[in-house]
């Protein structure tokens, strides 16, 4: 794991809040001159701290009004079946996130579709027919209470000395 100092954390936090921030403005925000700031950003990218840049988009604004969390249980956990399942999931545009998890299920999917009919089509004609799928359980998201998909480590303020 890479060691991040407070300046690195401030850089990451600033880019999380505003990914298109010009390097001059970023440098000013974190207290560096542009050249060392650019070197730090490049190092953070090369070391995998910053993995990519993207725009956060509103699903309803894109016509994706239904969101679901789908628990998937496999009946076969052989490497071949799991790899085939994962490959099929990666190819499905409705699945925006897939996590291998512990507990009663094997995978948790975040699925976006335009409506219930589209979700039903995905679930019945695609998901349930994928390799190794024994069963699924879907929960529909009624309201997003918090969606901080862009997050960053918060720099720790120096410890206050007591008087």
From TrEMBL:
PROSITE patterns: HTH_ASNC_1, HTH_ASNC_2
One annotated Gene Ontology cellular component of this protein: cytosol
Keywords: DNA-binding, Transcription, Transcription regulation
Pfam families cross-referenced by the UniProt entry: AsnC_trans_reg, HTH_24
SMART domains per the UniProt record, alphabetical: HTH_ASNC
GO molecular function: sequence-specific DNA binding
Domain of life: Bacteria
Gene3D superfamilies: 3.30.70.920, Winged helix-like DNA-binding domain superfamily/Winged helix DNA-binding domain
Cited CDD domains: HTH_ARSR
GO biological process assignments: regulation of DNA-templated transcription; response to amino acid
The keyword Transcription regulation belongs to this UniProt entry's keyword annotation: yes
Any coiled-coil regions, as ranges: none
Residues in HTH asnC-type domain copies: 4-65
Name used for this protein in its record: AsnC family transcriptional regulator
UniProt source species: Reyranella soli
